[in-house]
């Protein structure tokens, strides 16, 4: 009976083999679906091996590999992680992973990687820094100062190795996000405040420690703090004459370089050399651009006047101010922006002391500098509103006696565009900028603006926050 049962089975198997041999193709073998595959493989409806940063199929086809969802292992990282590792290997791997957040030709609205010791909010802020915030310290492709790679790569590498720099970057990004009103990023004002407070605290401790290994990170942090500290010009935290402390902070960058004792050659051989570049000033040419009323203000100081010992310092400050007028004649160039933001670093200590002592002539000079911060020819969002806040404070403090010398700064507050403001400052209603103006590379501008618009268009749900053991409200 068993032999009879086996015979049909044998015949059936032989028939199936013969039928398979006649088929012109082989059917696909069943396989597990790739739910996290790249966009190209999904379009072609083929299995993706989900290789990072590029899958095998895209690599063979020489195509840009783009993923629409983060890798699964990132979602399994617990929210409560130990303190960040300080060893170089961890910092290097984290920095490399952050670089993968910026896929070529795509805008990713959420980071794909979270290293040990960092929260999801930290990674969102760090991603936003490398996408948008970094550009507020860039001058584009200026020949003497092309620092985009330094800001997006070298600075981030140092941030993973130096917590005070990382805290400053996160605080700056949180401040930028709220300045733009990007509620979808899930960074409330209270969290911005906590990031900022931690940045100042960890920086203070690093300065006190004065570890030579942290000197490069201290320099870049001092630069970023000049942007982070501008919260004192806006909102509930605003306080009159905060500009005087801001002047001191900018001047402190040069002081830190002096304390460190870096020879100029050694400093400029580092990756931060271009970032700390300040354009030279032709003092003789700049002196010819000083407004005549300001020159008369200094020339009228006679022996016996309390300001007489400061005449030389006042004139030096006016020469620096003249360099802004001189550069403005060339149009709204990246170099003009660089001269505006580095202006206070050139001022002498006597001039800064005179301003902090609220001496009228020093305050008048500061008031005439402030209109230059209103030019919308750059992306330094952190200088916005400073002039609108401080020029009226200076005018109210000095009173009617100095009103004539403050007419131009007050009139600048009524301008709404670059051209009108430039014509007012230059005293030439028919002025036009030269046609040869160096513009920021289109690709960099497009990438940043597209990223911000993408975030604004997201309909993300409101994020709930819980108090963390570190004192930060983290999602």
TrEMBL record:
InterPro entries: Sterol_Uptake_Regulator, Zn2-C6_fun-type_DNA-bd_sf, Zn2Cys6_DnaBD
Biased composition annotated in UniProt, kind: Basic residues: 26-36
Record GO terms (molecular function): DNA-binding transcription activator activity, RNA polymerase II-specific; zinc ion binding
Positions with biased composition (Low complexity): 72-85
Keyword Cytoplasm attached: no
Domain of life: Eukaryota
UniProtKB keywords: Nucleus
Region (Disordered): 1-36, 72-92
Protein name: Zn(2)-C6 fungal-type domain-containing protein
């Amino acid at each position: 009976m068993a032999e009879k049962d086996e015979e049909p089975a044998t015949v059936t198997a032989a028939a199936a083999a013969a039928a398979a041999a006649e088929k012109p193709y082989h059917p696909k073998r069943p396989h597990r679906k790739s739910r996290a595959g790249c966009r190209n493989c999904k379009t072609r409806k083929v299995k993706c091996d989900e290789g990072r940063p590029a899958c095998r199929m895209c690599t063979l086809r020489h195509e840009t590999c783009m993923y629409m969802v983060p890798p699964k292992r990132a979602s399994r990282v617990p929210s409560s992680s130990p303190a960040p590792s300080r060893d170089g290997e961890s910092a290097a791997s984290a920095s490399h992973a952050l670089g993968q957040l910026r896929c070529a030709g795509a805008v990713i609205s959420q980071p794909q990687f979270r290293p040990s010791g960092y929260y999801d909010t930290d990674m969102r802020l760090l991603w936003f820094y490398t996408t948008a915030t970094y550009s507020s310290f860039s001058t584009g492709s200026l020949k003497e100062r092309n620092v985009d790679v330094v800001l997006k790569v070298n600075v981030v590498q140092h941030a993973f190795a130096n917590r005070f720099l990382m805290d400053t970057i996160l605080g700056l990004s949180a401040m930028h996000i709220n300045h733009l009103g990007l509620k979808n990023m899930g960074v409330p004002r209270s969290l911005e405040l906590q990031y900022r407070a931690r940045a100042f605290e960890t920086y203070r401790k690093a300065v006190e420690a004065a570890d030579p290994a942290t000197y490069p990170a201290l320099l870049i942090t001092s630069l970023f703090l000049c942007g982070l500290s501008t919260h004192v010009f806006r909102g509930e935290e605003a306080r009159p004459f905060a500009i005087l402390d801001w002047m001191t902070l900018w001047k402190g960058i040069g002081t830190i370089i002096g304390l460190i004792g870096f020879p100029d050659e050694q400093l400029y051989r580092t990756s931060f050399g271009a970032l700390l570049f300040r354009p030279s000033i032709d003092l003789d040419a700049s002196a010819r651009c000083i407004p005549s009323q300001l020159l008369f203000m200094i020339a009228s100081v006679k022996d016996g006047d309390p300001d007489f010992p400061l005449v030389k310092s006042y004139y030096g400050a006016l020469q620096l101010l003249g360099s802004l007028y001189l550069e403005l004649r060339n149009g709204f160039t990246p170099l003009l922006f660089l001269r505006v933001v580095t202006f206070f670093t050139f001022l002498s200590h006597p001039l800064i002391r005179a301003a902090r002592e609220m001496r009228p002539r020093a305050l008048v000079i500061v008031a005439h500098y402030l209109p230059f911060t209103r030019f919308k020819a750059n992306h330094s969002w952190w200088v916005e509103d400073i002039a609108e806040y401080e020029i009226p404070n200076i005018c109210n403090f000095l009173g009617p006696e100095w009103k004539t010398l403050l007419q131009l700064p007050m009139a600048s507050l009524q301008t709404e565009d670059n051209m009108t403001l430039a014509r007012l400052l230059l005293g030439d209603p028919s002025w036009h900028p030269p046609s040869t103006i160096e513009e920021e590379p289109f690709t960099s501008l497009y990438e940043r603006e597209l990223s911000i618009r993408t975030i604004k268009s997201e309909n993300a749900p409101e994020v709930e926050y819980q108090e963390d053991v570190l004192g930060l409200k983290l999602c």
